[in-house]
Design brief:
heterodimer; A: about 325 residues; MetI-like fold; 2 domains; elongated; B: mainly alpha; 13 helices; globular
Chain lengths: ~325, ~325
């Protein structure tokens, strides 16, 4: 059942998720700790094919309009992130007192912020921060954690016990709190934030990769390869990894949303990238001061972040359900 | 009893590891805490005195053993900044965070249980689609965003509750409720979406079981079937996740307490980090880890109450 913590279908755990030590469910916690209300609920709406038909306007076998809308929005965000500098947008940095807190107008399509800067332009430039942080964090976590999880999941034995015990210790802690403690002391450049979030997310990917490896390793084509006399190395590279990578990538999309929110959380606490460089979280945080007279300063960046995270969740979740071996009734 | 022990040992190991990691981390930092405490213009002797007083000149393992020894007796040290005992500062702030967190979980469960049940009962119907869709959307709303929207609507526009500040429960229960409700709601919304989706998924499975068909055949009312027969076996994942979400609540509390200017544990942590009050940071980190671990041990033990079939050791997945 895919609503269970990842391991319980393949590991040794019973229904219970033992705290701080056992096999199950801390996977949920790490992401959830990063963003209240993220992962556990991301399990698909229900079990089995009945639920699969239900989520949204989906044609038979297709991915549906909602999926492509989400992909479209992500494409727009990615485009802005890459080309904001070259687009005919106003400069996002210098203040312009004359247009302070202006509502949406011909000059400022999405209004201006507390320093009179064009919100559309800031939004577009901030997209690159969000994208840089989330892509690099996911890359670091996914590659290191994925390799570690696949390796111990395939090799098993004592290495697995030791690695997973260490991972559980790391996970037994609210991620944001850990992040804050580290970040407050090592500085707060874009690179530091990206690397740090990536590093802190390694345990989660390790769990996902290990659980998927355990599941894949039991499947017929792997056993067939064993019987045919394939070397362990060949099985790992040709049979296991290609299957684990897909699940990991789908999970990575959802995780990108988590990272974007995490960056926003840091910005709210004043610990993200230094101003005046725009970030979505920073824009939301700044808007607090002008909330009563200019609600658009809060709603515009909040809307952008919401749509992006929603799209990432949706796309990641749709893809995950397509590649998830456990969902295929195995 | 053996069960309790089996659960408690890894939990204690986790706590010690967290404490050690925090201490290692804080000791690796640039700068001399003794100099910071004594002030930039202090005499070298004063700085040395502070250093000795705080045992900063001893090697890390010695300091750690000393800290653990004190911690066991409830002494977490004194704040570098205010000289207030860390344990006292934490006990002062803790009730605020617990109140907000408990209210958030309460609200989330109050909404999620009926919604998740209804959604599973009418699976595929209009109500189900609405609940599923809205909860999926809510998953993309982080607590800080929710906090800002709530301030915008209920504090700035409608004026129903104060945007910031805190009234103690003992001072004025009504004002206390007004100051706690918006932070609690901000935390509750994300939880609610998670709980609803989880309960719905488990309930859909439960409702397909023979016992439910049997109950239907006996002519029991849908409400009785759902809440007396189906809810309990459907609530295991929910219970696990409520426990695990304590971590999320605590992380969320850091943000929400900052945004609503509520004097809770999360805000104390942020302030201490910004002021480099290392002893305080370490104390709070361990207390947070401890509450997380303890809650999950309790949740684990609750399984036995909820489902007598589960006897760890020969449970089948």
């Amino acid at each position: 059942m895919d609503t269970r913590p990842l391991d319980s279908s393949v590991g040794s755990g019973g229904l219970a998720g033992p705290p701080g030590g056992g096999p199950a469910s801390l996977f949920d916690e790490a992401m959830a700790a990063a963003v209240p209300g993220s992962v556990p609920g991301l399990s698909p709406a229900g079990a089995g094919p009945r639920a699969r038909r239900r989520l949204g306007w989906r044609g038979p076998g297709g991915l549906g309009i909602a999926f492509w809308l989400a992909v479209g929005w992500l494409a727009v965000v990615a485009f802005c992130a890459l080309f904001a500098k070259y687009l005919p947008l106003q400069d996002p940095i210098p203040p312009d007192v004359s247009s302070r807190l202006d509502g949406p107008s011909a000059d400022h399509w999405l209004g201006a912020d507390g320093l009179g800067r064009d919100q559309l332009s800031r939004l577009a430039h901030a997209a690159s921060v969000s994208l840089t942080v989330s892509l690099s964090a996911v890359a670091i976590g996914g590659i290191v954690g994925g390799a570690l999880g696949t390796a111990v999941g395939y090799v098993r034995g004592r290495a697995e016990t030791v690695v997973m015990a260490a991972i559980d210790v790391l996970l037994a802690f609210p991620a944001l709190v850990l992040l804050l403690v580290v970040l407050a002391y090592v500085g707060r450049s874009l690179t530091v934030i990206s690397v740090l979030i990536g590093f802190l997310s390694i345990p989660v990917y390790t769990r996902v990769a290990r659980a998927n490896t355990l599941a894949v390793a039991q499947r017929e084509f792997v056993q067939a390869a064993v019987v045919l006399g394939a070397t362990r190395r060949r099985i790992l590279w040709r049979e296991i990894i290609p299957n684990v990578v897909l699940s990991l990538a789908a999970f990575g999309l959802v995780a990108m949303g988590v990272v974007i929110v995490l960056e926003g959380s840091l910005a709210v606490l004043g610990l993200s990238v230094e101003p005046p460089d725009p970030t979505w979280g920073g824009m939301i945080a700044e808007s607090r001061r002008h909330m009563s007279d200019a609600p658009h300063t809060a709603l515009v960046p909040a809307g952008a972040m919401f749509l992006t995270v929603l799209s990432l969740n949706f796309v990641g979740d749709s893809l995950r359900r397509r590649v998830d071996t456990r969902d295929a009734g195995l | 009893m053996r069960l309790v022990l089996r659960r408690a040992l890894p939990a204690i190991a986790t706590l010690v590891a967290v404490a050690f990691l925090t201490m290692m981390l804080t000791s690796l930092l640039p700068g001399d805490p003794a100099q910071t405490i004594a002030g930039p213009e202090a005499d070298p002797e004063d700085v040395a005195a502070v250093r000795e007083d705080l045992r900063l000149d001893e090697p890390l393992p010695t300091r750690f053993v000393g800290w653990v020894g004190d911690a066991v007796t409830g002494d977490l040290g004194r704040s570098y900044r205010t000289n207030q005992p860390v344990a006292e500062a934490i006990t002062e702030r803790m009730p605020v965070t617990i109140q907000i967190g408990a209210m958030a979980i309460g609200i989330a469960l109050l909404v999620a249980i009926p919604l998740g049940t209804l959604s599973a009962y009418k699976a595929g119907g209009l109500a189900d689609r609405a609940v599923t869709g809205v909860s999926f959307g809510l998953l993309a709303v982080p607590s800080f965003m929710m906090a800002i929207l709530l301030i915008l609507v209920f504090a700035e526009t409608l004026g129903w509750a104060p945007a910031t500040g805190w009234t103690r429960l003992t001072a004025d229960p009504v004002e206390n409720f007004r100051s706690a409700i918006l932070p609690a709601l901000a935390l509750a919304v994300g939880e609610l979406a998670v709980y609803t989706r989880l309960l719905r998924a488990d309930m859909v499975t439960t409702l397909q079981q023979d016992s439910i068909t049997m109950a239907r055949a006996k002519g029991l009312s849908p409400a009785r079937i759902l809440f007396r027969h189906a809810l309990r076996p459907s609530s295991f994942s929910l219970l696990t996740v409520v426990g695990l979400q304590i971590g999320a609540i605590l992380s969320g509390a850091v943000l929400v307490e900052t945004l609503f200017a509520v004097p809770g544990l999360g805000r104390l942590l942020v302030d201490s980090i910004l002021q480099r009050d290392l002893v305080m940071v370490q104390g709070i980190a361990v207390v947070i880890a401890a509450s997380f671990v303890v809650v999950n041990v309790v949740v684990d033990l609750l399984y036995t109450l909820l489902d007598p079939r589960i006897r760890h050791g020969h449970a089948t997945a």
